[in-house]
């Protein structure tokens, strides 16, 4: 009932020359009102491509949605016109990018850029918009907002720019915010402040959020549910607590084992052996088999489906279906 977004079998492929990269190869998930869903996985597994597909910001020259649907208020976002998108993007669904420089326009002041979001979508007068911009800059923790209004992006620090971008993304109280590595470019201390800020505003307005991150620590703290991607597909999904307490997929186990821990006496940090293989379609076997310590012949013969466990916990692993799962992590 409180479903905000339902993504079914989304496929987004890139073409370069004669080769096709199935960057997102049949991804399904949902987001509820006020919920934070984390998407994790190593570089190149398709996280940003999911995000860009949802908000229709793919590079049209070589990216194409090959199939699937994204239902938002019962309508398929994949079928909306350009005009319809101009009313959805920024107003109903907005995005916070990793790099504020790429999202802020260097030739306009920060105040004008935030005001534009308000005058375009909310039909505010200039005076109303200015007051609201000051309020928003305060909300995102920018000191002396009245004087900061007239700053150009280059006159602000990276942390300030990121706050300004968050102000733009949240200006119209969108129902969904997609944050793609929103703090990766920042110092750790600023990261924590900005994440806390985003979460406070999100909770205040009951927004749904999709948070993409490499950092399992951030995801553990911020997200209600976690979706783990590998090679363009979802390999595991479940409540955050369940994923951390009892990860099911060997890939998720590997990701969790790679988190540095202060109270463990380990000389070297665990790393999942190998790297994400080059994607080609069709696959026909478990995409993680080549790096998996538990792979059996079956894993090379067919690709496992997402197998449902308790409380909606899903895992794309043949070992899930065995009565004795027998793949409890015995790594030292
Ligand atoms: N514009 C593009 N043209 C061609 N291939 C692309 C393009 N963007 C991404 N890809 C490929 O699609 C796959 C998924 O990329 P994507 O950027 O979605 O990964 P990601 O999970 O966001 O990685 P990262 O953690 O590094 O941001 C990769 O193999 C990547 O090389
Ligand atoms: Mg990315």
- Give the termini separation: 45 Å
Series of secondary-structure elements, N-terminal to C-terminal: EEEHEEHEHHHHHEHEHEEHHHEE
The CATH class turns out to be Alpha Beta
CATH architecture classification name: 3-Layer(aba) Sandwich
Report the biggest beta sheet as strand number plus sense, adding barrel if it closes: 8 strands, mixed
Helix content: 25-40%
Hetero groups in this structure are: adenosine-5'-triphosphate, magnesium ion
| CATH homologous superfamily title | P-loop containing nucleotide triphosphate hydrolases
Rg over alpha carbons:
21 Å
The number of helical segments is: 12
The total count of strands amounts to 12
Strand content range: 15-25%
What does this protein look like?
With 332 residues, this protein is of the alpha/beta class. The protein has one domain: Rossmann fold (3-Layer(aba) Sandwich), CATH 3.40.50. Helix content is 32%, strand content 23%. The strands form two sheets. It has an eight-stranded mixed β-sheet with strand order 6-7-8-3-9-10-12-11, sandwiched between helices. It is globular, with a radius of gyration of 21 Å. Mean pLDDT is 88; it is low at 324-332. It binds adenosine-5'-triphosphate (ATP) and magnesium ion.
């Amino acid at each position: 009932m409180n479903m905000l977004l339902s993504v079914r079998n989304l496929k987004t492929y890139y073409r370069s020359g004669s080769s096709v990269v199935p960057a997102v190869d049949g991804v399904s998930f949902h987001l509820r009102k006020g919920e934070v869903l984390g998407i994790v996985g190593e570089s190149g597994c398709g996280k940003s491509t999911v995000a860009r597909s949802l908000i229709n910001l793919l590079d049209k020259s070589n990216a194409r949605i090959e199939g699937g649907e994204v239902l938002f208020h019962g309508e398929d976002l994949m079928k909306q016109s350009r005009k319809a998108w101009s009313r959805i993007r920024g107003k109903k669904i907005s995005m916070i990018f990793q790099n504020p420089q790429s999202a802020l326009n260097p030739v306009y002041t920060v105040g004008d850029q935030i005001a534009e979001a308000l005058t375009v979508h909310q039909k505010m007068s200039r005076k109303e918009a200015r007051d609201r911009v000051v309020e928003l800059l305060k909300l995102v923790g920018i000191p002396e907002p009245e004087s900061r209004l007239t700053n150009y992006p280059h006159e602000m620090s990276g942390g300030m720019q990121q706050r300004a971008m968050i102000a733009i993304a949240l200006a119209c109280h969108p129902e969904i915010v997609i944050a793609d590595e929103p703090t990766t470019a920042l110092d750790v201390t600023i990261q924590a402040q900005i994440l806390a800020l985003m979460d406070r505003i999100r909770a205040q307005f009951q927004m749904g959020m999709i948070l993409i991150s490499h950092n399992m620590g951030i995801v553990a703290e911020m997200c209600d549910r976690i979706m783990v991607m590998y090679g363009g597909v979802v390999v595991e999904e479940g409540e955050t607590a369940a994923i951390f307490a009892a990860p099911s997929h060997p890939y998720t186990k590997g990701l969790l084992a790679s988190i540095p821990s202060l109270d463990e006496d380990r000389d070297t940090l665990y790393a999942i052996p190998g790297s994400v293989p080059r994607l080609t379609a069709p696959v026909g076997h478990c995409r993680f088999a080549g790096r998996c310590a538990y792979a059996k012949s079956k894993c090379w013969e067919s690709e496992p489906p997402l197998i449902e466990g308790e409380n909606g916990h899903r895992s794309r692993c043949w070992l899930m279906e065995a009565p004795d799962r027998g793949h409890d992590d015995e790594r030292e």
